[in-house]
Amino acid sequence: MVELVVSQGRVADRTAGAIRGALLTGQALAERTGRPVRTVGRPSDPRTDGWQEALAEAAPTLDAVGEAVGAVLDAGRVPVMVASTCATSVATLPLVARHRPGAVVVWIDAHADFNTPDTTWSGYLGGMVLAAGCGLWDSGYGGGVDPRDVVLVGARDVDDAEQELLREHGVRVLAPAEATPERLADVVGDREVWFHVDWDVLEPGAVPAAYRVPGGLTPEQVGRLLAAVPAERVAGVELAEFEASGTPADEDAVAAILRAVEPLVAGLTAQEPRG
In this predicted model, what pLDDT tens digit does every residue of 96-108 receive, in sequence order? Predict the structure, then answer.
């Protein structure tokens, strides 16, 4: 059974629209699935701060997200977590390692998010989150994900230092041209999968994102990637980085998100018992 968790607290947000984008996405998914939304965290204003300050400020939200997602996993259900920023995954990736050991983390993102405090030039927490989940640095929330169990899909804006870390730790990388459902299915094999989708993986325009990188995927391509893994082997889903504008254009963006996730949502809800 699918359970929806929506984070509404600031987790290193440097822009104003992503918290609202998470809420709009969660509401649309609730309408699509018929499942209630558990909302955690309280919105606050964006600002440009370093990772240490951002991490400390986000502690109540991260703790609440971890508790909510952990409870879903404890119940044997599939969490669908929607957040403003991918930095929120600092609280969820360690849960994958504990609750679903051996699951493959499929990180669908224009960026690698594999910097550490020693390599980051921006100081942005979101750019370090996957490395934290893999234990390359201590976020205070744990690690445990084996980098060799990570597949980075669609990345095209990767720092030189990240490239070296990715090679050193055995992370598999599928560039946009290689990001086909057949290739992903081959890499994943018959293992469980934890999907993370950062909407900047898309070609700019379909879903507004704060960090736009040309050369991305379409919503339909992302949908085919999500459908490449049978629903019974999906351990969890994370969606992040939709920058809502507060204008009617948000409706088009939400529609694009629903098109992308529909194959996966359809598979997950088809497994649920009928009342």
Answer: 999 999 999 999 9
